[in-house]
Amino acid sequence: MIYVIATTPMKPENKDDFIKGHKTCIAKTLKEKGCMSYEGHVSVNNPNLYVVVERWETRDDLNAHGRAPHMKVWREYSSHMKTAPTVIEIISDGKVEKF
């Protein structure tokens, strides 16, 4: 099993649009092969930090998710709504990879 934690600092003025747009992404992602869970949350410590928690059956499923057409749309849609790039942590087999 693969776990992913992705954190994105949102511009306060775009927070509502960011969250609304990600809900569309969530709905499509949950239909992908190997997606066990995919949830988005606003941090309890920082109202402008969005946290996505994911679980995937395999690394191949996660890699396919990154190439999915709706992910390209999401990256383009959300790019101007961030104050910094998304930090992605992939957790599997007792190790953590950070991007």
From TrEMBL:
Keywords noted in UniProt: Monooxygenase, Oxidoreductase
InterPro entries in alphabetical order = ABM_dom, AI-2_Isomerase_LsrG, Dimeric_a/b-barrel
Please provide an example of a Pfam family that matches this protein in its UniProt record: ABM
| Gene3D superfamilies documented for this protein | 3.30.70.100
UniProt keyword annotation of Oxidoreductase present: yes
Q: Name one GO molecular function term.
A: monooxygenase activity
- Which ranges carry the ABM domain? 2-90
Q: Which PANTHER family does this one have?
A: ABM DOMAIN-CONTAINING PROTEIN, QUINOL MONOOXYGENASE YGIN-RELATED
Annotated protein name in UniProt: Antibiotic biosynthesis monooxygenase
